[in-house]
Amino acid sequence: MFDTLGLIWMSWWCMTLFHPLHADLQRIERICSAETEESPITNLTWNWRRMELSWESSKNFPSYTCMMTSGDRRRRKKVKNRKCWFSMENSLPLHGGINFTIEVPNTNISKHCQFIPEGKKGSAIENFSCVIYDVSLMNCTWQAGRNAPGDTQYFLYWKNSRDDYETECELYIKGENGMHTGCRFQNVMIEEKTTYFLVDGISSNSQIQFYDEYIELYEIERLTPPLNVSVNCTVNPAGCTITWQKPCTSYEKPEHCFEYEINIQNKGEHDKDKKDPPVIVNTNKYEFENYNVKKKYILKIRARGNSCPINKSWGEWSKPIEFGENEDYFLVVLLLLIVLGTILVTLLLFFLCKRYCSFKRVFPPIPQPRDKFNTSHDENIQTENMFPSSLSCTKEVTMVEEMT
């Protein structure tokens, strides 16, 4: 049992470490080798790496017209040899099926071939999306196919031009059971070229369909906020001048390639209560004329592409900047009234006490306790003081009587 588990583990390890591009992609190298109709044009072959369609012909014709069609989209090209190259910008994804047609001008000779990807239906990835942020970082994410086996593993390849060789993702994002659900890229240079992405899958249980897509990198770039946002306000006349610089990008673009959305609102005001629509300008300067010196404001700015090959979706908001005075007169008046009321009540109580209350009534003296040890001494003193007075009075009465 352990030998069996070890063999399975080794097989999976080798499959993920030395995985080739899936057999589906090898089968597209020769998509019309089986002839379905008589024609001098035979053996149509599509080289997906070079975006090249080639064929053989039993007759020499001066020119050919090659076409690739997917749904209502069509790419057409005229050549003089038996090879037809499509640029990255003119190529169509293959995962949904595609039709190839070779025609000889001014004749009824043609060759048609339909390519339908092989593999278990519903095993290809779903919801593939990529975004570039912070100038040079890119994340691509996807979800496993709804019918993909549990042991399915996906691998992402990409290339920036027809002549480049595909490069595999270096840092995968892993989900449950270690399945790759995304990829992180660093040092991505946004050029005015189409990039080809291909996600292939492998499984020990069934054949997995691939997914491919052509993307203009500038269309998935999330612009950074405008730089160096500043506000300079004056009281007389009341107004503010707002200035900023264009967002930082991995490629140099002139100022006229951007337009900006300016959002100014009173501090404490909710977005749902905001009535004034945001202002959109094409320059890096804005005059705010509705400035009220008694209010405080919050400013945010974001950018998007205007006429150049830049993402037309709005980028990230700049950090909120506050400007203005923001004096809350209600609180100031309320605090002032409380202070004044406290002072008036204190003064009123003071005058009332002074007018109607004596100091002794308000603050009566505290009676002292009687000293029992000195009671007899005090009484003797009082007695001595009383008797001399009586004697003196007797003497005076006696003298009066003698004189009489």
From TrEMBL:
GO terms for molecular function: cytokine receptor activity. It is a single-pass type I membrane protein. PANTHER family: CYTOKINE RECEPTOR (PTHR23037), INTERLEUKIN 5 RECEPTOR SUBUNIT ALPHA (PTHR23037:SF46). Gene3D superfamilies: 2.60.40.3850, Immunoglobulins. Its main location: membrane. One of its GO terms (cellular component) is external side of plasma membrane. The chain crosses the membrane at residues 329-352. Residues 225-328 form the Fibronectin type-III domain. Keywords: Glycoprotein, Membrane, Receptor, Signal, Transmembrane, Transmembrane helix. PROSITE patterns: FN3, HEMATOPO_REC_S_F2. Residues 1-23 form the signal peptide. It is found in: Membrane. This is Fibronectin type-III domain-containing protein.
